């Protein structure tokens, strides 16, 4: 017999409360192990290179681990756990992972389930499509098939816009970003809606970057941050303090230059993406606000 979604949500919540009752810092200290969720194709935030997770968010999490080791007075074993857009929040809630180190939007809906560290990137939803199609806005895909990644805020926005504007689009949920772009490249969808920085990295690493174009118009504002458990103030303070220290020391700026303004693996492509004014504002006054207006 299948569990209803309501019962399943209650079960996940109860597991999450159980994990919280122990306290993540207590669990991490007693086991001397911290579990980090990583992605496999969220370039340059968290992805696999030679089978190992690398990226901007991965290195921010490395910095958090070092700070926790200093606070707890012990070395920690780091357990790397692969996650997807759909699985990362449930795995934080049930205690499988302690931090999700990828490309996650901090929004009000998600803050009902998890917490976020201070913002360390700001992006926007746009779409990638064939340059030859010359489509400038979402209305240009009326009645056509498009895709986005399952479990993301982008696909929720896309579904809501499709219904609100009566566009009649067929929206294919893809397992991950690479798979979504492959769906467009194979001609099974006309466009992939996602955060612009991820689209830019996929285009830059494709076989024919000149064939594709990322749209100009920003459709949403998406502040990125490391996901952490909700209702665990001791752990949140430790994580937030670690991130803020990295911001104030200039470490976040150094990591930004490394991953967005320098050649990165696996193809040594340089995204040449200067830091946005929105991110500069967030780093000048660290915040975990999910409100897009905070960054404008």
TrEMBL record:
Q: Which residues form a coiled coil?
A: none
Its GO CC terms are: extracellular region; outer membrane-bounded periplasmic space
Residue ranges of every copy of the Solute-binding protein family 3/N-terminal domain listed in the record: 33-263
Keywords assigned by UniProt, alphabetized: Signal, Transport
Query: What PANTHER family does the database record attribute to this sequence?
Result: AMINO ACID ABC TRANSPORTER PERMEASE, GLUTAMATE_ASPARTATE IMPORT SOLUTE-BINDING PROTEIN
Family label: Belongs to the bacterial solute-binding protein 3 family.
Name used for this protein in its record: Amino acid ABC transporter substrate-binding protein
Which species does the entry assign this protein to? Advenella kashmirensis (strain DSM 17095 / LMG 22695 / WT001) (Tetrathiobacter kashmirensis)
